[in-house]
Amino acid sequence: MAVAGTGVFADILDGEVYKYYADGEWRVSGSGKSVAIVNPTTRQTQYRVQACTQEEVNKVMDAAKVAQKAWARTPLWKRAELLHKAAAILKEHKAPIAECLVKEIAKPAKDAVSEVVRSGDLVSYTAEEGVRILGEGKLLVSDSFPGNERNKYCLSSKVPLGVVLAIPPFNYPVNLAVSKIGPALIAGNALVLKPPTQGAVAALHMVHCFHLAGFPKGLISCVTGKGSEIGDFLTMHPGVNCISFTGGDTGIAISKKAGMVPLQMELGGKDACIVLEDADLDLVTANIVKGGFSYSGQRCTAVKVVLIMESIADAVVEKVKAKLAKLKVGSPEDDSDITPVVTESSANFIEALVMDAKEKGATFCQEYRREGNLIWPLLLDHVRPDMRIAWEEPFGPVLPVIRINSVEEGIHHCNASNFGLQGCVFTKDINKAIMISDAMETGTVQINSAPARGPDHFPFQGLKDSGIGSQGITNSINMMTKIINDEYSMTKYQANLLWLGLERLVRCESVNRQDGDGDADADPRFVVVARLLGQHYPSNAPPATADRTEVIDD
Ligand code: NAP
């Protein structure tokens, strides 16, 4: 049933229940309890995962702490090598992982495969980026600040935070897990993953790829269970040194409860699409349909409200209606455009927003239709600010259209939202586009295209209730490290000695590098400082072929 593809994943299954991953092993929880994962399409239980206990979480945290210490001392290139290996294994096993995504979260089959491949690429890119940015430090000299002499040096470098807790949401359970795992590991942290319940089995398969790559025991763990049951215990655990969370309002509650640890929060959005009179209406239409309805609107960066100038609204609404009529509605296995939303409670929530809009007089461009968790695409025209759907995130295939009479009205609506993830503006006038995007209070504004997360190395962030901090590979690596300084103060006498002896020290260092005998010809810190400051002073450093005797006898 649950295990597909090559069969390597049989290791992670105990009868009907998937095991959790701790201390380098797949384990059965002592709770004796499991959590059901209901297939959104069949509405039958598809998989089961362990309901981990608090005691098991404690053990995972202890093991992570021990493993992290050794991992932080593992050379950066070796950490990168293991990540590249995991990425390759992940891509090799895209089929069984994608199959889980289809069954657990009703992701269309092709998109499910793309998510896994993109995740492998993300892990590889993270390894490369980590090698680049973590291999560098910074040298500061004191005399740039008023009142200081050039007698103090600061060498700063990045060190890991310790144990990172990663909690991704259901809609990208693999990609949004590796976007936390990769940066945490390359930076020298240990990682504890709490996958979303819907998507947990795909995430466990992904973790198995890291297991097969051969990471040290305890460095990566994956504890399963309902967020509502083990979430608080995890996020308030004293062993956690950093939390990277992606999801909805739960993130706001976590931010209030978490202790003094760095937080990376990527939360909900109500991405506005502002359309001006001079826009290319076919381009607008294509982007509204793709942006609003891909994966049935279950994307943080989906277009969630269209703010369109009255004069072109009729034309665009007609075009969008025509395109929506052509979308394939059905099962994810058939690669339908619109598939069932993730849970029955999500479908009920979406329906409540639709009914509220109906009562308050919105125009239904299609008849509202729902079967189980499957909701047919619906465009609601003439939506007004007193309707819930004007502000709330349906996370489903329902899109409100608000007609506006001025650009200012559109910007005002966008900025009145408590969210500020992304937005977009459509116009042929680049000056207007830049002015509007500048005025929109969101983490990103796309010009003439729908909001989107990625490519994964781009910075990605939300303002207001949409998040704390910034994601994207480089930002995540930096966020999961702390800067430490190595400061060196010199007396005036020492400083003078340094300048006098600079040339000689530079030579000694050059020799050490050549002969590799490890002899300490000079205090290495002194040498580094001298070398980095060498540009300020005349240097007659010997040619690279100079041998030791020549230099010492000089
Ligand atoms: P969610 O309900 O907030 O759940 C997110 C994660 O939090 C899940 O793993 C969930 O586990 C866990 N969780 C639940 N209660 C918890 C608690 N008390 N403590 C710790 N963790 C807890 O969000 P979702 O429904 O999965 O995802 C949809 C939301 O995510 C939307 O609002 C969407 O906009 C947002 N999102 C944002 C981004 C972004 O980058 N900004 C990207 C994608 C999605 P269980 O599944 O076990 O409950």
Structural class: alpha/beta
Number of helices: 17
Q: What's the pLDDT, averaged over the residues?
A: 91
Shape: globular
In which range does the helix fraction lie? Answer: 40-55%
Q: Give the biggest beta sheet.
A: 7 strands, mixed
Assembly type of the chains comes to single chain
Q: Write out the distinct hetero groups bound to the structure.
A: NADP nicotinamide-adenine-dinucleotide phosphate
What is the topological layout?
Blueprint: E1 13-14, E2 17-18, E3 20-22, E4 25-27, E5 34-38, E6 45-50, H1 54-73, H2 76-92, H3 94-105, H4 109-134, E7 138-141, E8 152-160, E9 163-167, H5 175-186, E10 190-193, H6 200-213, E11 220-222, H7 227-235, E12 242-246, H8 250-257, E13 263-266, E14 272-275, H9 281-293, E15 305-309, H10 310-325, H11 344-359, E16 363-364, E17 370-371, E18 374-375, E19 378-381, E20 398-404, H12 407-416, E21 419-420, E22 422-426, H13 430-439, E23 444-447, E24 463-464, E25 467-468, H14 473-479, E26 481-489, H15 492-515, H16 524-533, H17 548-553
Parallel strand pairs: 2-6, 9-10, 9-12, 10-11, 12-13, 14-15, 14-22, 15-20, 19-20, 22-23
Antiparallel strand pairs: 1-2, 3-4, 5-6, 7-8, 8-26, 13-25, 16-19, 17-18, 21-24
Features:
single chain; 554 residues; 17 helices; 42% helix; disordered C terminus; binds NADP nicotinamide-adenine-dinucleotide phosphate
Structural account:
There is one protein chain. It contains 17 helices and 26 strands. It is α/β, with parallel strands linked by helices and 554 residues long. Strand 3 and strand 4 (25-27) form a beta hairpin. Helix 15 crosses helix 16 (524-533). The protein is globular. The protein binds NADP nicotinamide-adenine-dinucleotide phosphate (NAP). NADP nicotinamide-adenine-dinucleotide phosphate (NAP) is lined by residues 167, 169-171, 196-197, 226-228, 231-232, 235, 246-248, 250, 254, 266-269, 300, 393, 395, 421, 462, 467.
